[in-house]
Amino acid sequence: MQELTHYINGAHVKGQSGRFADVFNPATGEVQAKLPLANAEELALAVQIASDAQIGWAATNPQRRARVLMKFVDLLNRDMDKLAEALSREHGKTIPDAKGDVQRGLEVVEYCIGAPQMLKGEFTDGAGPGIDMYSMRQPLGVSAGITPFNFPAMIPMWMFAPAIACGNAFILKPSERAPSVPLMLVELLEEAGLPKGVLQVVNGDKEAVDAILDHPVIQSVGFVGSTPIAEYIYGRGCSNGKRVQCFGGAKNHMIVMPDADMDQAADALIGAGYGAAGERCMAISVAVPVGDETADRLIEKLVPRIEKLKVGPYTAGNDVDYGPVVTAAAKEKILGLINSGVEQGAELVVDGRDFQLQGYEDGFFVGPHLFDKVTPDMDIYKQEIFGPVLSTVRAETYEEALKLAMDHEMGNGTAIFTRDGDTARDFAHRINIGMVGINVPIPVPLAYHTFGGWKKSAFGDLNQHGPDAFKFYTRTKTVTSRWPSGLKEGGEFHFKAMD
């Protein structure tokens, strides 16, 4: 049995708390590693080391910091296969999905190579008589990130890349369910030239999280996960005077208009609803066809596509569309919500509850499910299922469909499929959701834009990556400067009046 470690001060360090968590292989259900869970003392040690290391790192000019990230990108590409295999082994997602996870993180690292440009301040010459004014962006000091299991490469890089590009040190507390890739990432960054102590990995559960939120030296905290935990972290972190950004759950709607290309819409829903077993905060979990005829045509297109989906372990290669969910508890929750949907009157058009994979009977596999005639009062509509389940809510009109998405408490992402530009423009302008796709099912912005939802999907003023990241991980200091000027008269130096 492998025993994993923390990564502190440039070295793998065994846990001292005596507490461990099991790390599973989701395909087999077997425990493949033990993960140490840090206590407050272990976290405090990492923070002290980070605080000391940050001083020299902040004094390193932004161009040299950017060169470390440039080298890191090269190493990520070099080890892409190795990272993807480790990620799939702990998460369960297919190798192509795992490579996509790494790639979308890598793209944010590439954006952060532009740190010298992003960190430039402003200058006003002659703001007053002999007075100049300028601003500078300076690092916060020590920052921390608490990241989820579903993107164990991408989300950590979305946090630590801009943080260290800005001159901060960073403490990463990854998910206990998929901890290996974060440990590999910090090794690669140090190989790229990052000084030891600037990025450290401290594994743990709520005890470590609370220690992060309460530690006075940590200046900012980022989080991605469920909404209840996002609310908790945001409240406790802010009450302790920290800068906090938290991203929570989602219930993403895709409106399908009568004029939509129905094959295109169905294909989009298959990828967005069932890819990565639905364990994405940007997954489409609710299809909203407008009109019964549209709904019937959409269901007719979806059913054969869903029935052809291949579910299996990542080791099956490209023959698999999606793999297992991450834990037995996740599987139990998903199946419980599916049963509640049936009990509450939804029509289960495709039923995957009895799915079994020969040779992997103990794995955490969930077959694909499709519901029709779901209503907003049902649990499967109100809650984030985070599994391979697509719910169809029929709307009579465009306005009714729009209202469904706008009234839901989550506001992470949404999409509309239509051929009508006026409808698409109206949707984009009126919808109260942070990320919008027009004939694009998963509208995750590229690295040079920002990622973030609205309503109960996000807490904090700034989004992830893009320009917002450089604002989040720095403070602005403004300097007003006046130097007295003098004239030499008769060999003596006389100061001019300053006012």
Automatic annotation (TrEMBL):
One of its GO terms (molecular function) is methylmalonate-semialdehyde dehydrogenase (acylating, NAD) activity. Its EC number is 1.2.1.27. Pfam families: Aldedh (PF00171). It is an enzyme of class 1 (oxidoreductase). InterPro entries: Ald_DH/histidinol_DH, Ald_DH_C, Ald_DH_CS_CYS, Ald_DH_N, Aldehyde_DH_dom, MeMal-semiAld_DH. PROSITE patterns: ALDEHYDE_DEHYDR_CYS. Keywords: NAD, Oxidoreductase. Residues 13-479 form the Aldehyde dehydrogenase domain. Transmembrane segments: none annotated. The keyword Oxidoreductase applies. This is methylmalonate-semialdehyde dehydrogenase (CoA acylating). It comes from Pseudodonghicola xiamenensis. The lineage of its organism: Bacteria, Pseudomonadati, Pseudomonadota, Alphaproteobacteria, Rhodobacterales.
